[in-house]
Amino acid sequence: MTRERLARSAEAAVAAAEAIGWPVALKGVSRAVVHKSDLGLVRLNLADAAALRAAFGGIAEALDRAAPGSMEGVLVQEMARGGVAELILGARHDPGFGPMVMVGLGGVLVEVLRDVQLAPAPLAPEDAAAMLRRLRLWPVLAGVRGQPPADVAAAAEALVRLSWLAADLGPRLAELDLNPLILRAAGRGAVAVDGRAMLRRA
Ligand code: ADP
Ligand code: MG
Q1: pLDDT one-digit tens code per residue, 17-40
Q2: How far apart are CA 132 and CA 89, in angstroms?
Q3: Largest alpha-carbon pair distance within the chain?
Q4: Which ligand lies nearest to the CA atom of residue 86 in the structure?
Q5: pLDDT digit string (tens) for 59-98?
Q6: How far, in Å, from the CA of 194 to the mean position of ligand 2?
Q7: Do 93 and 198 form a contact (C-beta atoms < 8 A)?
Q8: From the CB of 2, is ligand 1 less than 6 Å away?
Q9: Cα–Cα distance, 179 to 108 (Å, whole number)
Q10: What dihedral angle (degrees, nearest 10) is formed by the CA atoms of 79, 81, 87, 92?
Q11: DSSP 3-state assignment of 201?
């Protein structure tokens, strides 16, 4: 995960950014919103207090238009650097099949390109690696045209861990999405910058 902190005012957001380190990402937080960037609620690479205050105002205004009164604050987040690919990781509890996990091409093009693989949870490490190799995205992850290969081992490990979370929580975890999990070059790890989960009461 990124280092991050929820802030309820522009001043608190500046203090959080000082603690986390510039530049930061700023995101409007509201349970009423699923796709933040569609609504202008994601501002990246804010390098100083002036840029952050302006972004805070813009986010508050956009959220007020989209879902009045629903703003819970803003998330101040470290910028993830050195990414070479973005994946989506998901889990859901299927009434027939039980806990399932999903991995695919992530970012904002998920719905458009639909390059995903599904499997029942929990996963063995070799299952996770095989799911990644079945993606159309795989050649990109493996490194094409002088691009460095992505850290697929980190991606597989994240997928295995998510599968155990889904298996352990069972029907209580209705669904969970991490989008994107940003992959750095091989050996440099992966970081989730956005996540959303829905829990069912026991
Ligand atoms: P949403 O999916 O709700 O629109 P995200 O938080 O996923 O919002 O942000 C949209 C995109 O912005 C991500 O797919 C990613 O490319 C980029 N992004 C978001 N947060 C960061 C971050 N902390 N570091 C680097 N890139 C980020
Ligand atoms: Mg996202």
Answers
A1: 999 999 999 999 999 998 999 999
A2: 11
A3: 52
A4: 1
A5: 999 999 999 999 999 999 999 999 999 999 999 999 999 9
A6: 5
A7: no
A8: yes
A9: 8
A10: -40
A11: coil
3-class DSSP assignment, residue 27 = strand
Dihedral sign (CA 56, 20, 199, 83)? positive
Query: Which of 94, 74, 96 minimizes the C-alpha distance to 27?
Result: 74
Q: Where are the alpha helices (DSSP H) in 5-150?
A: 10-20, 49-66, 110-113, 125-133, 138-142
CA 3-32-7 angle, 5° bins: 35
CA distances from 102 to 47, 99, 123, 155, 164 (A): 35, 10, 11, 12, 13
Q: Give phi and psi for 56, each to the nearest 5.
A: -60, -45
Angstrom distance (rounded) from CA 182 to CA 156: 13
Contact 29, 13 (CB under 8 A): no
Contact predicate 168/101, CB 8 Å: no
pTM above 0.70, yes or no: yes
Q: Is the dihedral of CA 54, 55, 58, 61 positive or negative?
A: negative
In short, whether 33's Cβ falls inside 6 Å of ligand 1 is no
Burial of 155 per CB tally in 10 Å (0-12, 13-18, 19+): buried
Ligand 1 site, residue 1, Cβ cutoff 6 A: no
Distance CA 104, CA 127 (A): 14
> How many angstroms is it from 16 CA to the middle of ligand 2?
21
